[in-house]
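As noted in the main text, all predictions were made from sequence alone. Below is one such record, for Integrase catalytic domain-containing protein.
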Amino acid sequence: MADSYITDILTAMKGTNPPRHYSLVHGQLFFKGRLVLPAASRWVPKLISEFHSTPTGGHSGAYRTYRRIASNFYWKGMMRTVQKQVAECLTCQQQKYEAQSPAGLLQPLPIPSLIWADISLDFITGLPKSNGFDCLMVVVDRLSKYAHFIPLRHPFTAKKVAAIFANEIIRLHGLPHSIISD
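Prediction:
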């Protein structure tokens, strides 16, 4: 399967001024010692999969996959093709984190001046069932460190959590000025 890019190079190689870095060995076209493949070859996705998805490839990202393939093969638009296939890799989408620079130094929260004016809220899930409950909503006053541990059944909705929060916290302590949660 040949494309116009390879056909043009083969034609130019027969002329008096052959393109640099290309060579023809036993009927195979090489670019800087790497085998040239048509961009639409059925081997291109197989090669990317082999160099990316196998235990040797280790799902190591587009650039490393490209470098591994580029050591032996070449085709036009190679980097773009590798990036596209790696971006569509289901395992990478599920397991890889987004590479971002750190957010910076943590800033301390201001010290609250009134009890139950500033609270923190978190959920503890994955607990063994007890009376049908398997989650806890933990609400802590940031000044006094007084805490409420409210049992929940999983799955719960935001509407249900808001109703329980109003019934258990706002009813007893009033509406807080701020709620800190992760």
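The chain has six helices and eight strands. The longest helix spans residues 158-173. These features were considered when defining construct boundaries for the mutagenesis experiments described in Section 2.9.
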